[in-house]
Amino acid sequence: MRSSIIKTMGSLEWFLLIFLSVLWGGSFFFGKVALSELRPFTVVLGRVSIAAIALNLMVRATGHRMPSSPKVWAAFLAMGLLNNLIPFSLIFWGQTQVSSSLASILNATTPVWTVLLAHFLTVDEPLAPNRLGGVFLGLTGVVIMIGLDALQGLGLNALAQLAIVGATVSYAFAGIYGKRFRGTPPIVTAAGQITCATLMIIPIALFVDKPWLLPMPGLNVWGAVLGLALLSTALAYIIYFRLLPAVGATNLMLVTYLIPVSAIFLGMTILGERLDTRHFVGIGLIGLGLMAIDGRILRIIKT
Prior knowledge:
This protein is mainly alpha-helical. It has one domain. It is 78% helix and 0% strand. α2 (11-34) packs across α13 (255-269), α3 packs antiparallel against α4 (70-94) and α7 packs antiparallel against α14 (277-294).
């Protein structure tokens, strides 16, 4: 694995990375709006089912074909579980208790878990000293944001934050697992995993949420679900699988450091959310941790 994001990414990859961060940053805003009238599993169902329809139509329109091999679909199933079903469910449940801004900051710990897991699960991404220091800084930032007092009491708010952190661990597993799709067209991989995620969430949403008992949501909620499905999922995962084989799991997960910028902006300007001082301290430590993981701090020191 090449050692730094600067060496592995050209101008196109940088543009796609920034664009991806905007799409995923918007998902926290869209999710908060959707959760105002819908339950978490129902939001997941709306997000992945609409995205699955859009992606499968795009597969046909672009002349690609979905694979018929059961082995490939088993891999899609695992990817849908790790990259969609588990993290989407945990994050949307977490957002019923915490702001979209804080959720996006906690989501920025994904590279920390990716570095740790990649050390044990891959042979080409070892835990070098700079990455170990970055992991320590990132984890310290998470603890500060959640708060030691909250962890001792483990109230509902703390559990919600831990659920979002759990989602980032699932994303990390997905980033490592997803490297096996190298050579598969990004749109096919995206369609396969989202289709499998849809099939898995349907019985859960119907059994747990019973969405037919809820009142018809307003236009703003429908708009948020469409934004989640078409922008933050369908389009985002085409870009995700375009970048993954080119830059690797660890480097791609650095996108989560850019996500809070758009999520915090939307949350504070439109939803009126506010963050405590400890949250800014935490994101600062996470940022330093990611710079250490990336090797950027070492380059700055040497110069």
